[in-house]
Predict the structure.
Amino acid sequence: METHFASVAPVEEGHRAHQVEASVRSLPENRQILGAPDMSVQCPSQASDGNRRLPIRIMTRLIARLRKLFQPVTLLLSLLVLAFVIGFFAFSEMVTNMREPKAVEAADGIIVLTGGQARIETAVDLLKAGLGKRLIISGVHPSTKKQTLMRVTEADDALFNCCIDIDRSALDTVGNATESAKWVKAHGYKRIIVVTSNYHMPRSLDELSRAMPNVAFVPYPVVKTELNDNSWVKQGDALRVLMIEYIKYLRSMARAFFLEPHATGG
């Protein structure tokens, strides 16, 4: 009996050792060390979590790359916005500080751009004072009669027949400059007084100077409301008018910069 049990004990111990070795080899981390294939199977919950995280990782990397790509664009846009705001304040300060000159030297002719009764009245007064030989009212609506202009300016028929010309073709400031250039060339004028509202003066002079580069222009701004104490910032209507005119002024300069070289070169 002792001999039988002695022979069985080593067999059982060897079998147990084989089971322990197999268990150790079955661990995933030990399979890689021992060179055995990894036969482990992920749980469905772990696989689904990995699938959910994959799009998040991709989006995170994509956003990081886009940030690097658009950093120069964002900086450029920020600088453009800053330049626009600074330019608007500079433009507004310039036009709101314009004043009707107390004295002005006589010129060959006077150009008034329509857009308000005060403009035309001022221009006719300058003509009556002998500060110009002739006056052109540019941009008059086709339905507006000469008698209406005579009534609002308190000018007689003799003055209109003698020295006042009416332009009904111009529809905007560019048209004002084009039609006025024809008038100036026809009379051979070299020095012109320009009458328009203060906020409209920069763009008007810009367009007129491009249409007539060899003519000297004397600005005579018409100031309807005093806004020189920065009160325009608090007045919604004034702020709106200044912003619209500033955008038009920028558009005028952009058109001249991008289009005129091609027009003159062709």
Notes: The CA atoms of residues 191 and 217 lie 6 Å apart. The beta strands are 109-113, 134-138, 164-167, 191-197, 216-222. The chain has a mean pLDDT of 80.
